[in-house]
TrEMBL record:
One of its GO terms (cellular component) is plasma membrane. It is a multi-pass membrane protein. Residues 1-88 form the DUF3817 domain. Pfam families: DUF3817 (PF12823). It is found in: Cell membrane. InterPro entries: DUF3817_TM. It comes from freshwater metagenome. Keywords: Cell membrane, Membrane, Transmembrane, Transmembrane helix. The chain crosses the membrane at residues 6-23, 44-62, 68-87. This is Unannotated protein.
Length: 101
């Protein structure tokens, strides 16, 4: 979910900079339908990201601060990739040190 949310938000951020910086979306009411649809998709994807992130935090027993940072990473362009990397590294380390039953 971090990758999917991050890719959509990153594409939208680039589109936003290009659209308002170079294509002058600010002075027109015409925006591509895909642009609006992607913002809606990002909203729903972020909602799913929140659910998955809270589930992960409960399963791994993360403290509240770490959980909030992981959840907020989905709102900052490209930051969900960074959060995913740290969580992946933490889970891999926990699995390596886990004792088999």
């Amino acid at each position: 979910m971090a990758w999917l949310t991050g890719v959509v938000l990153g594409a939208l951020t680039i589109w936003l900079v290009v659209g308002y910086g170079f294509l002058d979306y600010a002075n027109t009411d015409v925006k591509p339908g895909l642009y609006r649809s992607l913002w809606t998709a990002h909203g729903w994807l972020y909602f799913i990201y929140l659910i998955v992130g809270v589930d992960l935090a409960f399963r791994l027993r993360y403290p509240l601060g770490k959980t909030v940072l992981i959840l907020l990473a989905g709102t900052v362009p490209f930051m969900s990739f960074v959060a995913e990397r740290f969580v992946h590294k933490d889970v891999a380390a926990r699995m390596a040190t886990a004792t088999p039953n």
